Amino acid sequence: MSYYITTPIYYTNDVPHIGHAYTTIACDISARYNKINNEDVHFLSGTDEHGQKVEKAAKEANIDPIKFVDKLSMNFEKLIPNLGCEINDFVRTTEQRHINAAQALWNKLFEKNHIYLSNYEGWYSVRDEAFYQESELNKIDGKYITKDGSPVDWVKEESYFFKLSEWQDRLIDYYQKNHPIYPESRYNEVLSFVKGGLKDLSISRTTFNWGIPVPNNKDHVMYVWIDALCNYLTSIGYPDINNHKFKKFWPAIHVVGKDILRFHAVYWPAFLMAAELDPPKKIFAHGWWTNEGQKISKSLGNVIDPYEIIDKYGLDQTRYFLFREVPFGNDGNFSKKSIATRVNADLSNNYGNLIQRISTFIVKNCDSKISPSSNFIDEDNRLIEFIKKVTEKYFDHMNNMRISMAIEEVMNLLSEANAYVNSQAPWKLKSDDPERMKVTLFLVLNIVIKSSIMLFPIIPKSSTKALSFFNMKKDQISFNNLSTLITSEIKINNPEPLFPRIE
Fold this sequence. Notes:
By secondary structure, the protein is α/β, with parallel strands linked by helices. The protein has helices spanning 18-36, 52-60, 65-82, 96-111, 168-178, 184-195, 224-229, 231-234, 244-249, 261-274, 306-313, 315-324, 336-365, 378-399, 403-424, 426-432, 434-455, 460-468; strands spanning 2-11, 40-48, 89-92, 115-125, 130-132, 137-140, 143-146, 153-162, 181-182, 201-202, 204-205, 213-214, 217-222, 253-257, 282-286, 289-291, 294-295, 332-334, 369-370, 490-491.
């Protein structure tokens, strides 16, 4: 089985922020989960380096566009390992392999008579690299702006058009048969937009030069969104659709911010179907972040630097907070108080403290090992059944990118384990009933190990360290037999504190 997941193509007109980190980590979590689930994973990220906005920013900085994007692209690529993410490929849209792929896609659409030359006249946002109908705009002080506050200009120029209007019925059929867009609110939003009617899409520009030339007409460059979206094909060898990688991995799963959902859920599937390629398997759209309840903006000086957050709170702590705190798809709020509260309650107390006190107890009182047992009483059987229910829910949530809900199930399991330890009191059983003590410790160790495996996609470094206390190596981490009890002796190494409290 294969699994292909992509981040958005990050736009190189600024430095990375918390939104970029959030999306990349989301993809990494899903990629790691599927690897453990025995899938062959291809995880792609990359940068979108063309367009009028980049050209303008480079000019203002008095730098050649290619040198400008070289520096900014490097910032995005460097961020990925610092987020604890492991990608398979990073595609820059200025690479020759990508230029070849984008021009091949254009030629395919042109040959199939899906593109024509005409004139464009309408509202265009340079900031968003997007066209807008007047009905989608607000008029303030006599000027039109987008709902998100981006200024728009009236543009008139010669342009190639993609016959988007012809794909309305095919798109609706694709949505209704496959239900590919998540969460449900975004699915309904896209479906409603398409049912409202589609107009042909302008897909070339003549007013700037920083872009991929349109084949056979060098006066035009490709519209940034047909260029950039092709990045997902570039990584797996397009236009050679018969190569092993393409056959194995396409179609992809895209994770994007809600602000670029239309490009991925409307334009992109139409381009693909017109080029006789399968549309995306799934498209997940997440929300935006605020900072201490405030909208994030450079003018307010409250942009969240992911490096600063990781340096202050820790990598796994940051990864955990971002995906525990907010249901994927919703808007989220970053606050110092919230991250401290969440990390201390969940990771330090519920998870880390349980590992520490149980492992230390076994090292001191059980010669650092516990053997399997089947001598269970009713309380044990209820706990065993709870393990099975949690693992079932965990798989369902993770398969559908409901990461916060998957984490919640694991935390519920750890809470049950802590309550079980307190009720069974192995420190009392040590003298009263040593065999019963070993049974309780065996069950708790099962929960700790299984919880660590389930948390691995989210907090890989800490989970790997936790599992090393039980003589498990990273390459041994697997979902096989997750819902059943361990059948071999569990040996304990001297545990170390995992999560120091955040004060």
